[in-house]
């Protein structure tokens, strides 16, 4: 299944294989910035410009938790691998770790000097990545409750961060049109730069076009405000069209049948 979040204030679930719309969640009152399935697929976390974090039950469609932020609107959300908590990136330069069962604030980090755009948990659940408008990436040790690294390399806002499935590497993407891949050995970090060449596939975000990909551990993705998604195509595979509102492109930017 695929989850989409939209400026029409809704979150929708789609069955990709059958090109089928399944359900919609529309309790948000403003643009929905992000929506994520929980690790077991039974819950959805959404963040919206109405300053809310909402937790939905996938089977019933019920909103089981609503948490409203008093400061900046949340920009992104990530599930802990255990599925019992989420990390929220806030536009007021803060990061919150929240227990989804009791809506309790577990940890609060003020480690950036500008809005936080994305967060990602390490597969172990012990570390958190964050990317910010201050052009930096922070690595947080959640067991000790403190930042352990500040990484520089981007020359503009960092919009997306994500670990590989084995946790050995992570990728970051920014407004500087760079995708940086880092070795996450927690001792030294080495970055190699990927530029937009023919081996990368991009799809438009502001023209009602969405693409769905199946990725191996070897491939990485990054988002940028240049309205594109870039994917290392060495072992990536694109799915087919969902319906008339979705297009899927191959590595030559040709629409798939």
Automatic annotation (TrEMBL):
Q: Where are the WD repeats?
A: 1-24, 25-66, 109-150, 151-183
One of the record's GO cellular component terms: ciliary basal body
Highest taxon of source: Eukaryota
Q: Which GO terms describe its biological process?
A: cilium assembly
Q: Which UniProt keywords apply?
A: Repeat, WD repeat
Q: What is this protein called?
A: POC1 centriolar protein homolog isoform X2
């Amino acid at each position: 299944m695929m989850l989409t979040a939209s400026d029409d204030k809704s979150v929708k679930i789609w069955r990709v294989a059958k090109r089928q719309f399944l359900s919609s969640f529309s309790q948000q009152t403003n643009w929905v910035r992000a929506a994520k399935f929980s690790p077991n697929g039974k819950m959805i976390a959404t963040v919206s410009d109405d300053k809310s974090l909402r937790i939905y039950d996938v089977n019933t469609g019920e909103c089981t938790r609503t948490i409203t932020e008093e400061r900046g609107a949340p920009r992104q959300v990530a599930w802990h691998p255990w599925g019992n908590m989420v990390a929220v990136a806030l536009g007021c330069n803060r990061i919150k770790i929240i227990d989804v069962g009791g809506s309790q604030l577990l940890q609060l980090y003020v480690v950036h000097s500008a809005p936080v755009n994305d967060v990602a948990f390490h597969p172990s659940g012990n570390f958190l990545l964050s990317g910010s408008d201050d052009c930096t990436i922070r690595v947080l040790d959640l067991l000790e409750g403190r930042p352990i690294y500040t990484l520089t390399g981007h020359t503009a806002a960092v919009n997306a961060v994500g670990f590989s499935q084995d946790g050995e590497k992570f990728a970051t993407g920014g407004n500087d049109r760079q995708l940086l891949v880092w070795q996450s050995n927690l001792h030294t970090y080495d970055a190699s730069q990927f530029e937009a060449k023919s081996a990368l596939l991009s799809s438009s975000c502001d023209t009602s076009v969405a693409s769905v990909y199946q990725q191996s551990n070897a491939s990485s993705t990054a988002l940028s405000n240049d309205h594109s998604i870039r994917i290392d195509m060495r072992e990536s595979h694109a799915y087919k069209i969902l319906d008339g509102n979705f297009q899927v492109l191959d590595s030559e930017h040709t629409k798939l049948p």
